[in-house]
Design goal:
Layout (H helix, E strand, L loop, with lengths): L7 E6 L5 H8 L7 E7 L3 H11 L2 E3 L2 H5 L6 E4 L6 H10 L3 E5 L6 H13 L4 E4 L6 H12 L5 E9 L17 H4 L1 H12 L3 E10 L9 E8 L4 E7 L9 E5 L2 E5 L5 E7 L29 E7 L10 H11 L8 H15 L5 E2 L3
Parallel strand pairs: 1-2, 1-4, 2-3, 4-5, 5-6, 7-10, 8-15
Antiparallel strand pairs: 7-11, 8-9, 9-10, 11-12, 12-13, 13-14
Helix pairs in contact: 4-5, 5-10, 8-10
Length: about 350
């Protein structure tokens, strides 16, 4: 006999680009696992849309949604500057909380929320959904296979050209690319680094957006294992970049900007590399510089099957399993705090250079 599934009852807070445009879309096809029973937003038209689509209750104030006994999980998709207050209200009310990134406006807010979650009656889960991306996981499998040898450097990039002028360009609302794309890419970087961070440098620029915060950043991380990870996100680039580039001592793997294709080139694992030594002598007249040995290379181009960027929606399945089946949620509180620590350090003491002219 099939075991009856008890869907998690969601109260969705924030019906904008994230709430309506991402969370509800990701939940399609998962109606057996989740049921939206309530929604909250300041704008009536958005509330009416949710009521008409889901037949759910709607509220103009988060306090009213949190007080609804039918709401089991509060899914927070509000502006970044509201994450701390909204998550804290829900935790104090004993609700399970699913919080979109960023984990607060800065590291201090994240630490306070983590402390509140530890003493709350219900857990706090962080939505680092790109951990479930098809391309990211394919690259992780290549690294684990050992064909690249010892991985020593990783590049992670994302970019487009946008003259952005919404709240994401305003610092007091938690705008800027470090709070927007930063949590995703730093979370990926920590998985690739596979060691505690011992060195961090950063550079912030304003290239195309208006407002008072960065729309271009670079972060360089070095682990205690000496592996390096370099991140760049820009809203001022016209040239598509590689989403991932991973360099190992025996090869390389890259993923294209739109995450649809992976390219691999590595030394044939069946080839034994004989020991060599550096030769200090002067080469003869006909001798060539370098090593004349013939390396056998394996080269592959592999398509990546992705459902229109929806791979990250698998985080909802992991969330259900963590709540109902008590399985371990892959996004840990400690890892999420480390993401915020690095982002805060990347901002610290940085003057944003304005290149807009």
């Amino acid at each position: 006999m099939t075991k009856k599934i008890d869907p998690i009852r969601i109260g969705l807070v924030g019906l904008g680009r994230a709430g309506l445009g991402m969370h509800t879309v990701e939940l399609k096809g998962k109606e057996r696992l989740f049921k939206i029973v309530a929604a909250c937003d300041l704008i009536k038209e958005r509330r009416d849309t949710m009521a008409g689509t889901y037949g759910c209750k709607t509220y103009a104030r988060i306090e009213e949604l949190i007080a609804d006994p039918d709401v089991e999980l509060v899914d927070i998709a509000t502006r970044s500057c509201d994450h701390f207050r909204h998550a804290l209200l829900a935790l104090k009310a004993g609700k399970i909380v699913f919080l979109d990134k960023p984990f607060g406006i800065d590291y201090n807010e994240a630490k306070k929320l983590a402390a509140a979650a530890r003493t709350a009656r219900s857990p706090l889960f962080l939505r680092h959904n790109r951990r479930f991306g098809a391309a990211f996981n394919r690259v992780q499998k290549v690294i684990a296979s050992g064909v690249l040898g010892a991985v020593y450097d990783v590049r992670i990039e994302a970019g487009s050209y946008q003259r952005r002028n919404d709240w994401q360009a305003i610092k007091r609302f938690g705008g800027g690319l470090l709070n927007n794309w930063g949590p995703h890419l730093v979370d990926e970087a920590l998985q690739f680094l596979e060691a505690p961070v011992k060195q961090i440098t950063s550079d912030l620029k304003q290239v195309a957006a208006v407002g008072d915060t960065e729309d271009h950043f670079r972060i360089f991380l070095k682990g205690t294992n000496e592996r390096t990870v370099q991140l760049q996100v820009s809203n001022g680039t016209l040239i598509p970049t590689s989403r991932f580039i991973v360099h190992g001592t025996r090869g390389v793997v890259t993923v294209n900007a739109i995450e649809t294709e992976m390219w691999l080139k590595y030394i044939d694992p069946r080839q034994t590399l004989r020991p060599i030594q550096a030769d200090p002598s002067t080469p003869g007249v006909k001798a060539a510089f370098g090593n004349a040995e013939k390396l056998r290379w394996i080269e592959k181009t592999i398509p990546i099957k992705s459902v229109a960027g929806m791979d990250g929606a698998q985080i909802w399945v992991a969330l259900y399993e963590a709540i109902r089946l008590r399985k371990k949620f892959p996004i840990t509180m400690e890892g999420s705090l480390e993401v915020m620590r690095i982002l805060s350090l990347a901002k610290k003491g940085q003057k944003i250079k304005d290149w807009r002219g």
